[in-house]
Amino acid sequence: MTEATIYLFKAILDVISVVILITFFFRLLKVDYYNPLVQGMLKFADIFTSLIRSIFKPIFGIDLASLITAAALQAFCFYLISLNDAVLFSLGIMISWSLFSVLLIGLTVAWWALVGGVVISWVAPVSSFPPSRLLLQMSSQICKPFRLFLPLVGGLDFSPILAYIILQFLWSAVYGLSTSAGLPMYLSMGS
Question: Which of 52, 80, 136, 142 allows an S-S link to 65, with CB 3.0 to 4.6 Å?
Answer without folding.
Answer: 52
